[in-house]
Amino acid sequence: MHSFGYRANAMLTFSITILALMCAMASVSDNFNSPSPTSEVQVLNINWFQKKPDGDDEVSLTLNISANLESLFTWNTKQVFVFLAAEYQTPKNALNQVSLWDGIIPSKEHAKYWIHTTNKYRFIDQGSNLRGKNFNLTLHWHVMPKTGKMFADKIVMTGFRLPQAYR
């Protein structure tokens, strides 16, 4: 006859194997989801555009951010981290990214939203490169699953321009 320790070890090993198999199946099932999120950002006002005493450009924007990220949620989604970034080029760098706003969406019920806000984080360029600069606003998201690997993507919105003169 088998001892209690042997039977407990066999039962624990079997349980952990089944749990690992279920986690793997949950992770693989996310590959069949093809999300189609939508987003729109409007720059309502440039509150100020100034040159700081240290020579850096600083901008404050009033924004309307609307998005429908419900399609990112599956039964395996724990939460979604979202952030809005301004992206532009300078002679020194091919890509500059400045985070303007971020948020955590805890459930599908909160994944469709509309926000009227000013930039949460300062929009500063190290130098005087922002006057008359074209920039994109990009909504990035990171899907954090209950099990499996994280997934990230973005929507790029083009056609934004800063003024030639400081205000």
UniProtKB/TrEMBL annotation:
Name of the featured protein: Signal peptidase complex subunit 3
One example of a Gene Ontology biological process annotation: protein targeting to ER
Entry's family note: Belongs to the SPCS3 family.
Recorded superkingdom: Eukaryota
Alphabetical UniProt keywords: Endoplasmic reticulum, Membrane, Signal, Signal-anchor, Transmembrane, Transmembrane helix
Stored Pfam families: SPC22
CC terms in the record's Gene Ontology section: signal peptidase complex
